[in-house]
Amino acid sequence: MDTGSGGQLRATNSIPPTPFRRFLTAMRDGWRSAAANAVPGLVIVCLAGLLVAAYYLFTGVAASLQGLQNLRDRWGIWFSMGASAIGAGVIPGLYLMATGRARRGRRAAVDLLFTCLVWSATALVIDRFYAFQACLWGPTAGLPVLIGKMLVDQAIFTPLVGVQIPALGFRFRDMDYNLSALGRALREDWLIKVIAPMLAAAWLTWIPGTLVIYTLPLSLQIPMFVLIQCFFALEVAYASSRM
Fold first, then answer.
1. pTM for the complete prediction?
2. Residue partners of 237: CB distance under 8 A and separation at least 6
């Protein structure tokens, strides 16, 4: 409290922001942080888009990707999990080790293995979700269907499931695999402190990324997903190393 010129008391305490306002602020901060590192991700998405265009325009490119498509068809979810473990787990993990941003020694190996498991689990769920999308929308790939798939993916699946799995896994890892500490984190503004910034970064990469992915046949969607996921995992790992 302080006094004005007339000697009357005047309240100086501001009204605390509502949880929704804090969530929007966290989203904005996450968006700004992601936007500062957006160029490499958008370059990857653009390159993925060029690859998709070449797939439909040039028979040689389609023939070259046929082997990858056959491999995905043969191995199913094991292909999805293994490719994600390598693309989103091993490659970013080795990068962090090489740049000195990861732990050293035995703990580094444990963290790398756990990170691979988290991304494999994420890929398993996404593999099944892509199959669900294919059943829901049918085999056509027109613009309305493409936008519909992207909206279902990014407005429903990603906030409720897509970012929750890696967020839980990596907070558990960064808290030294302590379930009690993870429980406290879940009770202490989990959505605002963890999910909102991660969701902002996810949307910046995956809104254009899913538009590219859903133009492909189902068998090639996971390989394209892993290509884009590799960059996204690097971004998540870099942000996690600074928390």
1. 0.82
2. 92, 93, 95, 96, 101, 115
